[in-house]
UniProtKB/TrEMBL annotation:
The keyword Metal-binding does not apply. Residues 3-91 form the Acylphosphatase-like domain. It comes from Halobacillus campisalis. InterPro entries: Acylphosphatase, Acylphosphatase-like_dom, Acylphosphatase-like_dom_sf, Acylphosphatase_CS. Its EC number is 3.6.1.7. Pfam families: Acylphosphatase. Keywords: Hydrolase. PANTHER family: ACYLPHOSPHATASE (PTHR47268). Belongs to the acylphosphatase family. This is acylphosphatase. The active site is at 18, 36. It catalyses: an acyl phosphate + H2O = a carboxylate + phosphate + H(+).
Length: 91
């Protein structure tokens, strides 16, 4: 199953981004995690079907919240699975 990591830069901390990502990931039946980084960005790792990963990313980019402002997204794709059981917020 494909796995991707994204780092979102912009106004993404303190605006409900992690909870929004978790909600969208669960709707898309993805597994993985989301966490704040010390530099003010947010990192997501998700596993699932390729189409579901793309739909997840598009929904986040479409901005379900007016408070979230994404300036840049770094993306990495991996072939191997991590075997996540659910999608969680990492503190």
């Amino acid at each position: 199953m494909p796995r991707k990591q994204w780092v979102f830069h912009g106004r993404v901390q303190g605006v409900g981004f992690r909870a929004t990502a978790q909600s969208i990931a669960r709707q898309q039946e993805l597994t993985g995690w989301v966490r704040n980084k010390d530099d003010g960005s947010v990192e997501i790792e998700a596993e699932g079907k390729g189409d579901d990963l793309e739909a997840f990313l598009q929904e986040i980019k479409d901005g379900p919240s007016p408070f979230i402002k994404i300036d840049k997204i770094d993306e990495q794709a991996f072939e191997e699975e991590e075997g996540h059981k659910k999608f969680k917020i990492v503190y």
